[in-house]
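[agent] plan:
  1. take the single chain provided in the ticket
  2. run structure prediction with default settings
  3. attach C-alpha cells to the ticket
  4. add a short note for the reviewer (M.T.)
[agent] executing step 1
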Amino acid sequence: LMQTLHVSTSHPYDVVIEKGLLDRAGDWIVRLRPNARIAVITDSNVAPLYLERVILSLTHAGVGRERVAHFIFPAGEQSKSMETLSRVYAFLAASKISRSDLVIALGGGVTGDLTGYAAATWLRGTDFVQIPTTLLAQIDSSVGGKTGIDLPQGKNLVGAFHQPRLVLIDPDTLSTLTAEIFADGMAEAVKYAAAFDGALFERLEKESLRAFLEQLITRCVDIKRLVVQEDEFDKGGRMLLNFGHTL
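[agent] step 2 finished; step 3 output follows
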C-alpha cells in the first residue's frame, strides 16, 4: 500500500513510502526531471546491495546509462568530512552535473547529510532526491532538509538547510540491516513516540514491530513533517527533535 505525505516547506516535496519502491525509483525521478543527468552518491555498504537496482530502475524509465554517474565513498561517520566532500565535488564536476540535473542520496544518514550538503553548495544549489535505506534515515534524517558534515571540532558544525525534491522510502531495504543498525533507528522511533504520540509508544511496547513497520515509518515521517513545517530552520519547536540525542 503506497503512502504519500506532502511536506509544505519553503520548497515543498512528497515523501513516498511503499514496499518494492526501489525498483520503481526511476519512474518517480524521471517524472521530476525528464532530461536530467543523474549523479547517485552512496557508500561502500549500500552500493553492493542497491546501487545497480537504482541504476536499472533509471534505465527502465528511459534514462540512458551514459546520463547516470555514481560515486561510492567508504561507509561510516568518518566519511562525513571535508575530505570526502572535496571528492564529491570533483565527481560532480567530472560528471558535468549542472543546476538542471539531479543528485541522488542512496543510503543512511551519513550519505543523506553529505550528499545533501554537496547538493546545497554545488553551483550554489542543485536539486537532490533522498532514497534512505536505514530505519533512522527513513523515519528521521531524510526528511526536513538538514544537511551537513562533521569537523574535527565537532559533529554537524558545517551544513545548510536544503530540502530534497523527493524522498522515496522502500521498507524492504531494512531487511539487509544488521540488528545493531536496526536498533539504532528504533531508538529514534521510541523517541518520536515518547515525545509526540503516547498511543504509538504503547503499541511499540505491546506489539511485534515487524507487523506494523510500514505504519511506524509513516507515522514517524508524519510527526517529523509537522514539526518541520512549523519550524523549518530549527529556531524553536523543532529543537524537540533533539530530545534524547545526548543520551
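[agent] step 4 note for reviewer: The chain has a mean pLDDT of 95.
[agent] ticket updated
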